[in-house]
Specification:
By secondary structure, the protein is of the alpha+beta class. It contains two helices and three strands, in the order H-E-E-E-H. The relative contact order is 0.17.
Length: about 80
């Protein structure tokens, strides 16, 4: 019985890690409306009309988000 519980915990842990890797969090490039500076973030809040940030784009990796920031007109 003890071996079965340990095997079940191990299986759930491995499956959870694989499931999380299948859905990576995107990176957002946004302009902070209060300061006018560009920021890159991985987690975005509500982002509605009253939000502090204006999202300029969504990217799959940090490298592509940084690359996009260098070419955005609002980020200079």
């Amino acid at each position: 019985m003890k071996k079965l519980v340990i095997a079940a915990i191990f299986t759930v842990a491995c499956a959870g890690t694989a499931f999380a890797a299948a859905f990576p969090n995107p990176f957002y490039v946004a302009i902070d409306r209060s300061t006018g500076r560009c920021v890159m973030m991985q987690f975005m809040g509500a982002g509605g009309p009253g939000s502090r940030y204006h999202v300029m784009g969504t990217y799959g990796s940090m490298r592509s988000a940084h690359r996009a920031m260098t070419h955005m007109a609002g980020c200079h």
